[in-house]
Structures are given as C-alpha cells and as structure tokens.
Amino acid sequence: MRDIDLFQLALGLVPPWMVAAANFDAGEKRLDIEIDFKTGGRFACPECGKADRPVHDTVKKTWRHLNFFQHQAFLHARVARIDCPDCGVRLVNVPWARPGSGFTLLFEAIVMTLVKDMPVAAAARLVGEHDTRLWRVIQHYVETAVARMDLSDLRRVAIDETAAKRGQDYISLFVDIDARKVVYVTEGNDAETVARFADHVDDHNSDASRIKEVCIDMSGAYIKGVGHNLTEAEITFDKFHAVKLVNDAVDQVRRAESRERPELKGSRFLWLKNEGRLTVAQSATLDALTRLNLKTARAYRIRLAFQEVYNQPSEGWGELILDRWYSWAIRSRLEPIKKVARTINRHRDGILRWFDSKIANGLIEGINSLVQAAKAKARGYRSLRNLIAITYLIAGKINLKLAT
Q: Is 15 exposed, middle or buried (0-12, 13-18, 19+ CB in 10 A)?
C-alpha cells in the first residue's frame, strides 16, 4: 500500500483516478503501474466539454513514462468511453497524457528538452525509443506552438534560404529582426514562399501590411515576392551579400589571370579577406602582389572601394561614393567587375536603403549556421517537415508549454 500511495502522489492523480497496482520486475528492468477509476465515476465529454457523462465502456491503454532510475516505466489504465447525448460515444482524456500519444506528458517533456541540444536519433537511443516515434512528438509540440504565435509586433523581417540537402531542396527562413527569432519556415526559395509567409502573418494576429522593412539578398524571386505580398515594406539589400558579389567577381578575375601569372597560385584568400584579419606574413605577401601590374590587384582595389560605401556617415555620402565606384568599376575593362557593377547599379536603391534601415542578414546567417550544424550532427533529416520542425525548435523561441 505504501508503494501505491507513493506512486499516486508522484503521478499527481486525483479522483476518480487512482493507482490500483504496481509491479517491479528487476530482471526485465521494468516498472508497470496500473491505474483505474472508481466505480460509478463520471467524466466530462472530451468534445463538447460538458461534465458528468456516464461511462459507456472502457478501453485498455498503455503509455511510456519517465524511467524509474535505470528501469523503463509504463502506465496502464482502463480508460472510460462516455456516452454523450450530444456527441455520442467518446474516449475520455486522461490527465497524464495528451490524446493519441503513447507517452506521458512528462516523458514528452524530457524528450523535447533533449532534442533541443542533441540529434533526435541520439535522444531516441538514450530513452530507448525509435526515432520515428520521437519525431511525431516533436512535430506535435512544434506545430502547436507555431499555431499559437502572435505576430502583432512584427515590423522588420530578414529573409534567406538554406539548403535541406547539398545543392537541392531549399527552405526559406523568415526572421523577426527585433525579436531575433525565426517566425516562419517553408519549403522552397521562390516568390511563392513570401506569399505563404504573408498568409502566415495574416493568420497570427497581424496583417502583412504592418511589415515596414525587409532585408533580402538580390534574388529576383524574393524581390518579386516582397513586391507582390509585403506591399508596405521597404527593401534593404543585405550588405554582406552585396560585398560577397564583388568578392566573387574579384575571385573570377584572379582565377582567369592565374593561368598566365603563376605568382597568383594559392593567393585566393589574400584577396578576399579584410586586411585587418591577415597575418603579418599574409600582409607582406599581399603587399608584394599589389605592387605588380596585375588585373587581380586592380579588382582588389575596386573591391576595397566598394566596402567604403558602407563606411560613409550618411546616405548622401554613400550615394556619392557608390556613384564614383560604379564609374570606376564599369570602366575597369575587367568583365567580372563590370558585370557585378551593373548588378549593383540595378539594385542601387535597396543598397542605399541600408543608411536608413541599418539592417542586414548577419542574424539570419547565424541562424543558418545553427540549422546547418544541427543538420550535420544528425547527418541530415529524412524529410523537410523534420528540418522545419528542428529550425523552429532551435531558432524560433517558441513556447512549447511542456508539462512540469
């Protein structure tokens, strides 16, 4: 009786539920607890909520519970089905588990805590369950938490893509810049992803017209999507993306020239790193190379001049420096530089918008890194739904409302 009373208290059971028996098998390393309800008990209808419904019959159910030290624990209960005049015969809800789950609420809470910090497969091995069952738990809690989101304060958004698999199956991330969290994740990286995001905002206590600032790269799909669906938002083109485009152009010049100038072999990172991050030896090598009559050296100086646009004290000065840079780049006789200059010029307004918005995708790049690190630890995910769930879990700051 002491064991039964102890388990009754530990499980927090209140009438009509009670622990009827407990069986511990040391050989099997297993604890089984039998739960029952008092004869004559009446229950609320799980559908309409009306109380005092009579029992129609019972169904035997089992749930995996928290381990008892190193032993697996299971709860078994005779669960009532009530006869509701309005809803018909319905299985009642039990206080220790959510409907349809084979785990107790406390077991699920432990699982959700584990998978925030370790791959799901590793968590599954730790608790002795198949990872497919844990994924169902994760998806339930994450998707329920996302459905409860309140986006009424959302005003500034960063948008970027990340690969689900190498070179294919992208997902798009939408990040609240001010709250520093992911607020929407969806399959794809086209204009339709922004349309789905706008619908998501409309469905979560807000309106897409409240979004006033958006930071994106120069993807035509995202530009189109924002223009059609976030009609009140000003676009800032991510400065890190713009600098990367110029860096890539410099590297194209270097690769082409290195076929005839062997001194350029192995120098790639010297031209792409910022000067302050070079070692003394690297700085000396770069200084020697820039003294040569190299096309790459000219491209490098154009690259440094572009970065100076973002160091100006105002948009007016930024515009002046950008115009001078464009004039220099377009007359450089370096085709990769001329091509990127045309791209920059087409997106000129969004680049200069940075001086007002001061927003960039550095935050979302950090989130991308977390997602990719989690994916690498898990050696990939079997479905996009799993990847999306993990992204919300590690970067969405969602309220899972776990049992305690």
A: exposed
193 and 225 both lie in a single domain: yes
Rg value, the chain, Cα? 30
Q: Do 234 and 367 sit in the same domain of this protein?
A: yes
pLDDT in tens, 67-85: 988 889 999 999 999 999 9
Domain that holds residue 206: 103-238+360-404
Pairing relation of β-strands 17-25 and 156-165?
A: unpaired
Q: What residues contact 377, with CB distance under 8 A and at least 6 apart?
A: 118, 119
pLDDT on residue 165: 72
Are residues 189 and 172 in contact, defined by beta-carbon separation less than 8 angstroms? yes
Both 256 and 221 in a single domain? no
Stated pTM of the model:
0.89
Dihedral class, residue 69 (left if φ above 0, else alpha if ψ from -120 to 50, else beta): left
Is the link from the previous residue into 16 a cis peptide, with omega within 30 of 0? yes
- Looking at residue 111, its amino acid is V
Question: Which range has the worst mean pLDDT, 114-128, 144-158, 184-198?
Answer: 114-128
Residues 256 and 394 reside in one and the same domain: no
Q: Do the beta carbons of residue 75 and residue 62 sit within 8 Å?
A: yes
Domain closes at, from 102, 121, 147:
102
Q: Which helix (H) or strand (E) holds 105?
A: helix 105-115
Asked whether residue 337 carries a pLDDT value surpassing 90, the answer given is yes
Please tell me the distance from the alpha carbon of residue 310 to that of residue 191, in angstroms, as a whole number. Answer: 28
> What are the strands, taking DSSP E only, across 199-309?
213-216, 234-237
Confidence of residue 356 (pLDDT cuts 50, 70, 90): very high
CATH number (domain holding residue 375): 3.30.420.10
Q: Mind spelling out the 3-state secondary structure of 164-178?
A: EECCEEEEEEEEECC
As a whole number of angstroms, the distance between CA 302 and CA 249 comes to 10
What's the per-residue H, E or C state across 26-58?
CCCCEEEEEEEECCCCCECCCCCCCCCECEEEE
Pairing of strands 181-187, 168-176: antiparallel
How far does the chain reach from its first CA to its final CA, in angstroms? Answer: 26
Task: Look at residues 46, 74, 102 and tell me which one is the last residue of a structural domain.
Answer: 102
Tell me the two tokens of residue 30. Answer: 């297993």
Nearest Cα to Cα of residue 225 among 256, 184, 258, 264: 184
Asked whether 241 and 359 are in contact (CB, 8 A), the reply is no
Domain count, the chain: 3
